[in-house]
Amino acid sequence: MTKDSPEQAEERDARYRTRTADHVARYLASDGADGFDDNSHKAPTLLLTTIGRRTGNEIVTPLYYGEHDGRYIIIASYAGSDRHPKWYLNLVANPRVQVQIKADMCLATARTADAEEKAALWPIMAGAYPFYNDYLAATDRDIPLVILQPVDSHDRHH
Looking at domain 6-34+43-151, what is its CATH homologous superfamily? Predict the structure, then answer.
């Protein structure tokens, strides 16, 4: 399998940062009315706020998600890159995150699904978003499936 060159990786990261900043700004300005599902897949999008493991700053990332048993499911695919996305590395370092879906926000604890959970939940996500299987085939990296468990329904606020 062909690995990204450093130049390819930097180009992809620069494009991703530009798209992400625009998406987050539109989503926040409209409480998700502009940005919740305005992507080529028409996939629902949440905003995940992590704490930068190096900077300590809040970082907001729009991500496709699914729901299962009161939890949110996200996949750290990075479009099949050979590297984990930075948001994933951040939540591994600090699993306390904020989730925003449209105007609703909650605090959550993030964790990587174990092998059994991943086997059960991956088909749910790939069934809704078949491109995740393409990403899986594009890399030798074990793509993490992340479970976001809301901390307490009382933490939800507008």
Answer: Electron Transport, Fmn-binding Protein; Chain A (2.30.110.10)
Strand partners, 61: 48
Show the tokens assigned to 99. 């989730």
pLDDT digits (tens, 9 = 90+) for 36-53: 987 777 889 999 999 999
- Distances 75 to 23, 56, 57 between C-alpha atoms, Å: 18, 23, 22
**Euclidean distance between CA atoms 34 and 48, whole angstroms:** 16
The answer to whether residues 76 and 83 touch, using CB atoms and an 8 Å cutoff, is no
Whole-prediction pTM value? 0.88
Residue 83 tokens read as: 């590297």
Helices (H) and strands (E) in the chain, counts: 4, 7
Q: Collapsing DSSP states into helix, strand and coil, what is residue 60?
A: strand
Tokens of 38: 């305005």
User: What span, in angstroms and rounded, lies between the C-alpha atoms of 34 and 102?
Assistant: 9
